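During the reporting period the student researcher (J.K.) took over the structure-prediction task from the postdoctoral fellow and processed the backlog of single-chain submissions. One of the processed entries is reproduced below for the supervisory committee.
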Amino acid sequence: MGHFRHLMVRPLVRILFTAPLMLTAAQPGIRSFDFKNFEYPWLRGTGAQSSWNWLGAIPRSRVRLHNGSFTFDPTDPPRSDYLQLGSVTFGDLDGDRQDEAAVNLYYGTGGTASWHYLYIFKAVNGTVVPIGILKSGSRAYGGLADVKIRQGLLILDFADGDRQEGDCCSRGIIRVNYRLQGGRFIETGARQKDSIRFAYYPSEKRGPQTVQSRVDQQNVNLLYTDANGIEKPLTSSGVNTEPALSHDRSSVVFLREPNPKQKEIWAIGTDGSGLRPLFQGPVRWNNQAYPSSSLRLPRWSTDGQAVYFVTDFTATSGALWRLDLATGNAAAMIPDAVMYGVIQTGRYRGFLVANQRSLSKAESGGSRYPVYPFFLYTARGEKVQEIADEAEPLEQLLADWEGR
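J.K. obtained the following structure tokens:
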């Protein structure tokens, strides 16, 4: 486990002892309650841990969130530990046809450690009463990843420490079901393993014949370095990110963000000419339209006739697409792909290396779970063969296959 700061709550915290807040006539049910401005039971003097657990009792101390956050040291906010409201999930957990609320609070230290507190509240006789509090592990070591309530069960996803990527993240999750029995949350059924769409972005290359994005006040612009090492700005305004050079180094494809909820695929020549949009979305997947904000990682095909890109729809679903530049049509090519690259040289020039959601090899007990191994694909998306497991670096795989 990495090195975490085990911090005690500072004396400056104002600890409150109050009765449960009342629901007013204007707030007839738990769904109408304002959890952004609320006093939460608080356990003082705890730090990071490597797994999750339910607290044995509801603490009497309280902290009050204001507009969804609380700072433990108001005299030094940048260095202070803090709480922030993450999500509120509603559903019936005790079979009385009345919703309970699962409130997810994020605890940040300003350092390498962070974790979650999950509060379960019930509306009883005009009051909101906490009936359970769970504390998660820290980040990749049992951090809380998702909360659902379905068919009377509280379903929690935790980061799988055995599949961590550094201290921050994990490729895998452990799904645990809890049922409310006798006033306690009891684990029920077998734990399940799953995988998330774990994506990372390669570092931008530097030197002759490379392109980078550069923050310029409110804008993010593109900068091309030619064969002589001379830098040339390609854009002068807007938010332009994730640039990639064509095989012949004559063009750049990139994402442009007209607003925070929209992304478009654009192209421009490395001489600064020919700025043009290529694709503006939305995309349709399984008979449903998804906004263009899900677009990422545009890359040229080696023949320059198409642009590939990825979309992320949920934590476990998405696709790799091929945009035909002659027709402007985008078609899903590799379902459930997350990371990919285009082989630029050698006998496999134009082929793709991409990972795809698949079932793992059987464990000792015979169980299998989703993983994301890498495969070799043709330029049109036909699968050739599996070439590596999910932990292999994409850049190394591309270099290996470009040398064949």
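The committee noted the following: The longest strand covers residues 184-195.
J.K. will present the remaining backlog at the next meeting.
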